[in-house]
């Protein structure tokens, strides 16, 4: 997400446990279904301008895609193949008109909970109406395309404080909302808050990660754009680090070690980035990502934005790319190296041999 320097309960409710059915945060281990190969493709899969900060979800054999638009509109693409996303129609899902959040929509995040879909996004307010905050929409039925109803603002920080890049974590039978905000020490950090429902939190968030390592502080010290990945009983929280206006925007990772998820001591930060620029492949500033499953459930893929020039910065030049991830012998995710745009990629496993939206 574009970030410039700005002044800027702890209980799991039984209601939350009852609500949770499925989340696009990735939990590995689904049943496989045979499907014919789909078409190969090259990156980027979605071109500029509405292609930064992507969330890509695979649901019932269809891909659903949302990203930053820089306007008051949330737009969604749908396609039965990754290759088809490039030409898929952008459909307007919602237009923000509230005084508290009307303009320059960033980083929409699509989640399925209890047979409803939710879109979490941040918008700037009209002049005189406070800070950029996170808002939420709820679908009328179990269709990612909506229609959606506006459900309000998540009260994540004291004094209606600035909060962006939010997503949902399912952990120990409860829902948590993780996001990026400024701490009193002026560091843009990762926070987590307990949720009382998919549209509200029951307490302000607490910080679980600050940009303290050198590779998290290039350009500006930043932690943002977090996304959960779970496998074999382990929970990883991956996030973007350093300033998005540099070619050194990259991904880092936390792991949940047990205990109260709202306490920083329950999380361990990995000492090195897990995904970063590749000068050899011509990929710069890869970050603000999501993960999605292949149609047959056997593969995990990453969707992320990146630039093709080190000087392009943090605007509308960033395009969405995807590639398959793997797993290290120690059980941690291996995201590999960002692939060049010239590389032809096979589609996700089980993708149907048809294109379109």
Spatial separation of the terminal alpha carbons: 27 Å
**Are there runs of 5+ residues with pLDDT below 50, and where?**
1-23, 29-35
Number of domains: 1
- CATH top level is Mainly Beta
Q: What is the beta-strand fraction? A: 35-45%
Rg measurement, Å: 19 Å
Helix amount: under 10%
What about the largest sheet?
A: 5 strands, mixed
Structural class: mainly beta
Mean residue pLDDT: 91
Figure out the total of helices: 1
Instruction: Give the overall form.
Output: globular
| CATH overall fold name | Tachylectin-2, Chain A
- Give me the strand/helix succession: HEEEEEEEEEEEEEEEEEEEEEEE
Number of strands: 23
The CATH superfamily appears as Glycosyl hydrolase domain, family 43
Strand order of the largest sheet: 1-15-16-17-18
Can you name the CATH architecture? 5 Propeller
């Amino acid at each position: 997400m574009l970030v410039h320097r700005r002044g800027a309960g702890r209980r799991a409710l039984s209601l939350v446990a009852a609500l949770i059915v499925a989340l696009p945060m990735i939990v590995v281990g689904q049943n496989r279904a045979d499907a014919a190969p789909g078409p190969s493709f090259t990156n980027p899969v979605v071109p500029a301008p509405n292609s930064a900060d992507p969330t890509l979800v695979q649901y019932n054999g269809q891909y659903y895609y949302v990203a930053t638009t820089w306007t008051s509109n949330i737009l969604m693409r749908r396609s039965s193949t990754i290759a088809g996303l490039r030409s898929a129609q952008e459909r307007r899902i919602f237009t923000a008109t509230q005084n508290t959040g009307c303009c320059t929509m960033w980083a929409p995040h699509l989640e399925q909970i209890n047979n409803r879909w939710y879109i979490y996004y941040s918008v700037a307010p009209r002049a005189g109406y406070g800070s950029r905050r996170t808002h939420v929409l709820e679908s009328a039925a179990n269709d990612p395309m909506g229609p959606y109803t506006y459900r309000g603002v998540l009260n994540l920080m004291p004094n209606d404080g600035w909060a962006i890049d939010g997503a949902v974590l399912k952990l120990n039978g409860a829902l948590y909302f993780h996001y990026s905000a400024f701490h009193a020490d002026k560091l843009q950090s990762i926070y987590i808050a307990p949720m009382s429902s998919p549209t509200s939190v029951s307490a302000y968030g607490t910080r679980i990660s600050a940009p303290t390592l050198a590779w998290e502080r290039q350009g500006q010290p930043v932690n943002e754009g977090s996304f959960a990945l779970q496998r074999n009983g382990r929970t990883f929280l991956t996030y973007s680090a350093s300033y998005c206006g540099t070619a050194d925007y990259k991904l880092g990772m936390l792991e949940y070690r047990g205990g109260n998820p709202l306490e920083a001591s329950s999380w361990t930060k990995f000492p090195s980035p897990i995904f970063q620029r590749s000068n050899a492949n011509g990929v710069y500033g890869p970050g603000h990502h999501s993960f999605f499953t292949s149609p047959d459930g056997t593969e995990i893929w990453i969707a992320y934005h990146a630039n093709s020039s080190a000087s392009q910065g943090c605007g509308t030049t960033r395009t969405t790319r995807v590639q398959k991830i793997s797993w290290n012998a120690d059980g941690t995710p291996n995201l590999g190296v960002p692939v060049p745009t010239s590389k032809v990629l096979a589609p996700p496993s089980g993708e149907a041999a048809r294109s379109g939206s």
